[in-house]
Design brief:
By secondary structure, the protein is α/β, with parallel strands linked by helices. Helix content is 48%, strand content 10%. The chain has 19 helices and 13 strands. Helix 2 crosses helix 4, helix 4 crosses helix 8 and helix 17 packs across helix 18.
Length: 423
């Protein structure tokens, strides 16, 4: 990072000296809850969280210890929201140096926000969340990475992080038989931007038809909005989340269905928290919808045409952070002829994260490849074929196959279920 003059959002960097104003701090911390404040202040910085972080295991840098990022964010909080910190700031006993900001820049994206560090922490400190808060500072100050900023601008311009325009989305949805803007449907299906292709959407359409579902998609919603959040622009993400909730009301549907593990977490949990919005519509991951229908004897499940031993890569946002543990694995037990179940619970801290959204950021290519190896090797102990429940995870596992990291094939769960669900 090159030092330059910048005056944005209460931040100023000039000639190696950094000044941070209240405007930047208040915007960075504008959604934190009392529990988050407790987490910032009560983290003991014991460092135990680092042992479940593949990024620290790769670099062994102090700045890649998850608790380190929490401590850095706590510096900002204490400087402006605690008596001691305010006095220390006015007496110039506490300043931010250029070298400190450089460390923020280097560390903020060495994290997939998988939540493993929180599960490991003796006090369950939300260290995964503080990495995103550092990205929020990078976004406001103009020092964010290029690809995350492109996600943000794409969402603002087209409503889709990958830049897919409305006309193209509608064209693809029509081509695979998805019903569009149908009022009074039971289900509103919301894809993530990585799922807007005829292959995955065709499988989704086949699954929903196989369940005899009364469903629709919206011509205005082709992305669940979380990429902007992960890039630090909570305002743009909040607008997108609210657009989705409002569209569900407009179409008078009963549930919102997603097939992306990250979409589930952000629409079900983090979005309402960020908006301070009391969620008044049910959010389900497609595996949950199918599993419930199967238990209620409303659908049948046939064995998938997959002869190889297969295991699953549990989506961290779906299970560990999202709290949805049972349906994905149980469905795979039923439909995969030779399912090798991972021994740890889906939300266990001993399950390593994949590269997730960082796979699309060129500056992180090498470190992500090394960090991904932990997950790929772990999965290969159970099977060489891996089923994923999140398109970011699917991309990561496909890269693991290309990089010869132990697994030989990665399959998205919609492909498995498209030919298994029967009414």
């Amino acid at each position: 990072m090159v030092s330059r003059s910048c005056d944005c959002g209460g931040f100023k960097l000039e000639k190696g000296k950094i000044k941070i104003g209240r405007q930047l701090v208040s915007r960075t911390l504008d959604e934190i809850s009392p529990f988050d404040v407790w987490g910032l202040q009560e983290c003991m910085r014991c460092g135990i969280c680092r042992y479940t972080c593949p990024f620290w295991l790769t670099t062994e840098k102090s700045t890649d210890v998850p608790a380190w990022r929490t401590y850095e964010v706590n510096k900002l909080f204490s400087m402006y929201y605690t008596g001691y910190g305010i006095v220390a700031r006015y007496l110039r006993l506490r300043k931010l140096k250029d070298s400190e900001f450089k460390q923020w820049f280097d560390s903020a994206y060495n994290c997939t926000a998988c939540g493993g560090c929180t599960e490991t922490s003796p006090l369950e400190i939300p260290n995964w969340y503080t990495a995103i808060l550092l990205r929020r500072i990078l976004h406001f100050t103009g020092f964010n990475l290029g690809v995350p900023e492109k996600w943000i601008s794409n969402v603002k311009e087209t409503g889709n992080a990958m830049g897919i325009i409305k006309e193209k989305w509608v064209e693809i949805a029509n081509s695979v038989g998805l019903q569009i803007d149908k009022k009074g449907a039971e289900l509103l299906y919301v894809p993530s931007s990585l799922e807007v292709n005829s292959n995955i959407l065709g499988q989704i359409s086949k699954i929903l038809d196989g369940m005899n579902s009364n469903f629709t998609v919206s011509s205005d919603i082709s992305d669940s909005g979380y990429y902007a959040y992960l890039a630090g622009d909570f305002e743009t993400a909040r607008k997108r989340f609210m657009n989705i909730y409002e569209e569900a009301k407009k179409l008078n549907v009963k549930k919102i269905i997603v097939s992306d593990g990250s979409s589930y977490f952000f629409l079900r949990w983090q979005g309402p928290k960020s908006l301070r919005y009391k969620l008044d519509i049910q959010i389900e991951h497609l595996t949950e919808t199918i599993y419930n229908a199967y238990n209620d004897r409303r659908v049948k499940l046939e064995k998938a045409d997959i002869k190889d031993d297969a295991t699953v890569h549990d989506s961290e946002f779906l299970s560990r952070l999202g709290g949805l543990h049972k349906p994905p694995r149980e469905l795979m037990k039923i439909v995969l002829p030779s399912f090798k179940e991972p021994k740890p619970d889906p939300s266990s801290h001993v399950l390593f994260t994949c590269g997730h959204h960082l796979e699309m950021i060129p500056e992180k290519k090498e470190i992500v490849k090394k960090a991904r190896l932990y997950a790929a090797k772990q999965l290969s102990n159970w099977a060489k074929t891996v089923v994923t429940f999140d398109p970011n995870c699917q991309l990561s596992m496909e890269n693991a196959v290309k990089d010869s990291q132990g697994i030989e094939k990665s399959i998205y769960f919609t492909e498995v279920l498209a030919n298994s669900v029967r009414s």
